[in-house]
Design a protein that fits this description.
Low-confidence stretches: none
Structural class: alpha/beta
Shape: globular
Number of strands: 14
Strand content: 25-35%
Distance between the termini: 15 Å
Length: 278
């Protein structure tokens, strides 16, 4: 299942949080929206096993998560700062009742819930849920993890090879939305795709950062490149051949691919892929 924002509205995400009855385990880069904080705290008050990992120093917004940390701790949530193992804990994900995994492109901020183009992929596959919770438990301790099982894709372990395989294996089309595109390996793979005749469509927030930007390089090869300001593009998604979709927290940058904690899903679901591509 795919939740599309801002179309679905903030309540769609808040309802996912409040649907937890036994457990709610979350890793979140930015948690500043009062409604989201209250929903998480409310699950602890209802007796759920609520565990939250937060990034301690978000980029150019140090201290942004402090209020949420304090409120959740006061509510009895097992809330912790992520360790220094990663440059940033940039994941936006949670599991519900050890049975459902939600992978988000959005932070739990006002912009994420109310304004941006964002996506939430919901996954009830037991292997994927267990893999996500194994990673959460390791991240809570700052411990290393093996490559995730199932369809879960994580940085720094497996995002880069998974994306290169998707782009390199595309035969007819690639549709992407990304806030950033600066990684030379990903840009090269997209240029190679264009060279073999793959139709590439890319939406991003804009504006162009100069003649050498990856977006303008792709446009010069005939890719369809659109700067979209309404709604602002914050999604990080890819659809290959209208068949396989990738939804994740990772931007297409070296930091996101190789240094951050990021989480995503790669799914072979033509109907959902068609929705996302549309």
């Amino acid at each position: 299942m795919l939740v599309v924002e801002p179309d679905a509205g903030p309540q769609a995400v808040l309802d996912l949080i409040t649907s937890a009855r036994a457990s709610l385990w979350m890793e979140m880069y930015l948690l500043t929206d009062d409604r989201a904080i209250a929903a998480i705290a409310g699950r602890a008050a209802a007796g759920c096993d609520v565990r939250v990992l937060l990034e301690p120093v978000p980029y150019q917004d140090e201290g942004a998560n402090q209020a949420a940390f304090d409120q959740l701790a006061a509510a009895g949530v097992d809330v912790r700062w992520s360790t220094a193992r990663f440059t940033y804990t940039h994941a936006k994900t949670f599991t519900i009742d050890h049975r459902r995994l939600a992978v988000l492109t959005l932070n739990l901020t006002t912009a994420g819930l109310n304004g941006n183009r964002e996506y939430v992929a919901l996954d009830d596959d037991p292997t994927d849920v267990a893999a996500a919770e194994t990673i959460f438990a390791a991240d809570a301790l700052g411990a290393s993890t093996a490559l995730p099982a199932g369809r879960l894709v994580t940085s720094p372990e497996s995002t880069r090879p998974a994306l290169l395989a998707l782009i390199g294996g595309a035969h007819a089309s690639l549709a992407l939305e990304s806030e950033e595109l600066t990684d030379a390996g990903i840009v090269g793979a997209l240029l190679d795709a264009r060279a073999r005749g793959v139709a590439v469509t890319l939406a991003w927030p804009g504006p162009a950062s100069g003649a050498g930007s990856a977006f303008l390089k792709l446009a010069a090869t005939g890719a369809v490149v659109r700067a979209v300001t309404s709604p602002p593009i914050h999604g990080k998604v890819l659809v290959a051949d209208a068949q396989t979709l990738y939804v994740a927290s990772a931007n297409l940058t070296p930091t996101s691919l190789d240094q951050n904690r990021e989480m995503g899903l790669t799914l072979d679901q033509p109907a959902t892929a068609a929705l996302l591509a549309a």
